[in-house]
Amino acid sequence: MSSYEKLSQLKEEIKKGVIGQEEMIDSILIGLLTNGHILLEGVPGLAKTTTVKAVSDAIDLDFKRVQFTPDLLPSDIIGAQIYDMKTGEFKIKKGPVFTNLLLADEINRAPAKVQSALLEVMQERQVTIAEDSFKVDAPFLVLATQNPIEQEGAYSLPEAQLDRFMFKIVVDYNNKEQEYEIAKKATMNSFEQINKIIDKQTLENLKEEIKNIHIDKELEEYIVDIICASRDPKEYGLDELVDIIHFGASPRATIDMFKAVKANAYLRGNDHVTPIDIALILKAVLRHRIILTYEAQAREINVDDVIQKIIERIDIP
Fold first, then answer.
1. 49 and 178 both lie in a single domain
2. Strands 63-67 and 101-105: what pairing?
3. Does any domain span residue 149?
4. Could you tell me if 154 and 22 are in contact, meaning their C-beta atoms sit under 8 angstroms apart?
5. How far apart are CA 294 and CA 301, in angstroms?
6. Distance from C-alpha of 185 to C-alpha of 8, rounded to nearest angstrom
7. pTM of the model
């Protein structure tokens, strides 16, 4: 069985435990294939945690979950130096970040210091405890869930941390037919058991194959134009966005787009990137990286609206 067939089998295995939510499943798989962290936003009960658990069950990787709460401390995440009374020496107790898949559940309910504690490990794949640095095992992926900030007890994540996430996926309700199927299966406890489909070596093979996916230079320049238009809309004839965008997307957005479009093309069974691949993931890559002004909020303009205006203005190659 080829690596691509294994990937298709993996996706079908995950669907045993998750009904609907196709975009969320695809985004998590792209994150795994490109080492990109994923932020999932939605109200409670939309299978965010269930999906992440299903992915971990289908892949032979270590998995840990942290429930973020207002009383959580940074040491609860990364670990701490503790005193061993038996030996009379200090030793390092590693935290839950030392895993392959870390589910940071309701990440925006924790204080800013705890949220910031994830920054080093998300970017550098290492943790500093006391005076020593420790590498986390590869692959390492943070799958964070957050509730909409309108909910009580939820806070906005710092921009620096948001920028570390490849995607921000807005998870919506299932349709009526899916809701019915979920209720029936949950009531009868008839969800199928999820089996291990992929090991670490297969995952590495998939990553190598994705590097060979072709993308035309015109499409790469198209991606760069979109990112630059978010920073300097006037330069691209988007005068109406000058007072709407406070900060545009960072260079990480361009890097993540280049990686993610290749993985998306592979996931769709293609050996080259098309404009469709860019369109499918563009909003997920940009929506948490473009910061709007207070005027935009007053006019009830959201980030997805802004991204759509940029897409409509820039010609597709």
1. yes
2. parallel
3. yes
4. no
5. 10
6. 24
7. 0.86
